[in-house]
């Protein structure tokens, strides 16, 4: 990955890849319903899977006492290698943003 730091600012980007054997994911087909009618799903075993993506970060010193911290993850690939299907519980984008005060 790459990282830049200056005057309290921090920016970075990282590429990652994880190859899994026996990855667990939520099933796609409902196996039943609960008392209020919500579908219930069963966890399934994925024999081989790959998860690959980019993660970016940006930390901004808003003031001497406030820091704004941001992180975004974009999945390039999230795949069951056996079927070619996308993994069910991994979102394409994830964004986190916080303000910290000290």
UniProtKB/TrEMBL annotation:
Transmembrane segments: none annotated. Keywords: Cell outer membrane, Membrane, Receptor, TonB box, Transmembrane, Transmembrane beta strand, Transport. PROSITE patterns: TONB_DEPENDENT_REC_3. Residues 1-101 form the TonB-dependent receptor-like beta-barrel domain. Pfam families: TonB_dep_Rec_b-barrel (PF00593). One of its GO terms (cellular component) is cell outer membrane. This is TonB-dependent receptor. It comes from Streptococcus pasteurianus.
